[in-house]
Design a protein that fits this description.
mainly alpha
Length: 174
């Protein structure tokens, strides 16, 4: 399952690009975008290992290229990678359901709010750290920012719509 997820780099790159377009103008925005993309990819994949490995391959070079501190870049990706095991449809929840005698659908329902809450906490922490020390995560340079909201909304739709379709299809089948 993890190998299948890791091969779909194009959709992960589109998801990351969408989050980058939406948050890149802020200090630490690319780190926050990486966490958002990790949450989205975790919802598609269901594996923390595949999420961390794939997002590390997609986001880490970009974070380094734009001058993010190594500790912030790797920390946001490590934290975001853990979301893959919590956000449904998680492989861990599917395996754990029969062991504890609870239907996987109930575990999925119970994991949605903590997964979103944890994503929000990681994003807030990144925002706070970069507000306190702007050198950790600079905003995108002006020439790399979109000039209007049209491209941002288009990137957001292109990056997020497939994720929503896969999540609804997966949860609908389960």
């Amino acid at each position: 399952w993890g190998r299948h997820c890791a091969h779909d780099l194009a959709s992960v790159q589109a998801l990351f690009k969408a989050a980058e377009a939406f948050l890149g103008h802020r200090k630490g925005g690319l780190g926050m975008a990486a966490i958002g993309a990790c949450a989205g990819f975790g919802a598609i994949c269901g594996s923390s290992l595949a999420t961390a490995a794939t997002m590390g391959q997609v986001a880490l070079p970009e974070l380094k290229r734009l001058g993010y501190a190594g500790s912030l870049a790797t920390g946001t990706l490590a934290a975001g990678g853990t979301l893959g095991i919590l956000i449904p449809p998680s492989v861990m929840l599917i395996v754990m359901g029969p062991v504890v005698g609870v239907p996987a659908t109930d575990l999925f329902a119970a994991a949605v709010l903590p997964g979103l809450l944890l994503s929000g906490i990681f994003i807030a922490w990144t925002l706070l750290r970069c507000w306190h020390n702007p050198a950790l995560g600079p905003a995108l340079p002006m020439e790399m920012r979109p000039q209007s909201m049209g491209p941002v909304i288009l990137d957001l739709m292109i990056g997020v719509l497939p994720v929503i379709v896969v999540i609804l299809a997966t949860l609908g089948v389960i």
